[in-house]
What we know:
alpha+beta; Thrombin, subunit H; Pdz3 Domain
Amino acid sequence: MIATRPKSSLRRLLAGAAGLAILAPHVLSQPAFAQEQTQSSATLQSAAPAAAGPASVADLAEKLLGAVVNISTSQTVDGGEGGHNRVPVPQLPEGSPFQDFFDDFFKDRGGEDGPGPDQKVQSLGSGFVVDAEKGIVVTNNHVIADADEIEVNFSDGSRLKAELIGTDTKTDIAVLKVDPAGKKLTAVKFGDSEHLRIGDWVMAIGNPFGLGGTVTVGIVSARNRDINSGPYDDFIQTDAAINRGNSGGPLFNMYGEVVGINTAIISPSGGSIGIGFSIPSQLAAGVVDQLVEFGETRRGWLGVRIQPVTDDIAESLGMATAKGALVAGIVKGGPVDDGSIQPGDVIIKFDGRDVADMRDLPRVVAESPVGKAVDVVIVRKGVEQTVKVTLGRLEDGEKLTEASAGPAEEAEPSATASILGMTVGELNEETRKKFGISEDVSGVVITDVAKDSPAAERGITAGEVIVEIAQESVASPKEVQDRVNELKEQGRKNALLMLASKTGELRFLTVRTE
């Protein structure tokens, strides 16, 4: 599910689709109708004349409409609730002449005043065919979730029952299969979303409010949007009108190639306000290929826990700029549990691809094949180096991440010191019992944090353990004091701390030394 942000409504759309084939790696970034920049013999124009947009998309839409389908699902509901996928009835102005039409249309589709208890209701979404011979259709996972039956409706009015091949909740993609049974299907292909530019024209086709094939046109409003819906957020934002029922429908470029899968909108009412989000084809294509081949995803896995590199952390690590992903912990039994990558390392490049910030790393790792040996460029204690890593499988690695904590009992530490607004003590049998700290954790325990202190400002709490200060391990309260005093003498404004939770999960943060 997509998280709803305060004061706005981020809504999944009911629908689904994606393509199997990725075209040549380079696709022209300017659509065919764009005006060309001209150059005189005397001067080079400083800017190209503004393009007026396509005179018409009728020919393009006519060619593509046959490949876009409506996804209809039915589900047995209890208590007259209608389930979370019931089709919403459009809110029309009072006295609208269309009110009767919409009431009748949506009554049979699980809308307001629809079927009662223990009856089947329908949800309507969108999708598109990506393999005409095999009958492969792609849609959003949330369109078909919990469905008892799935039916694909084509633009010519024909209908075919669909079989679910596989789903991926992390990217909200599902792949269906229909039996063409002699019917000639129209398929579309993925284009190259990587070369989309802000301002490029795009066209959406879908099934808004169950009305059937509907074409809207707009531009790419933004790229690389993170809407907190999953670990691989990298959405295309568009102002092409997208509404409920458009989910899973394709977002086309002006060459008729699928560059995105429409999946969510921001709207206080459920209708389009010009802010829609599409899964880029660059991300979706690999997922679709795996679901078709294996019925499940097989993502690469590095086996690290990461956090952002802030300006303060970058300064503490001696980095000129804040970039990359800071390794906060290593998963036991994972691919890098051999010491090739260590907590405190900053990953700045993975398999030849730059890691500009933390959220780039999970995506590029997941897109890599399981078992592949890759070069990872890290910064360790201010020195850049390259390590070779063989990737594991994410789906297997998720089983290794659970940990347990022991019970907490009251006890007093045998030796303490105060520094940076923290009271720290020895990590011994008594303090382990008091705070429920795992036997695997070593360092100096924080027994108290003063209100309004530098440590409190950074969210440090009692029970956490200081493992390192400025990438040097500490084992006693005195070592904590000495290390912080050294940093002050060196004129360092911040002390970089590696903290461990009760279960051993690590995180890095900086605390003001003043």
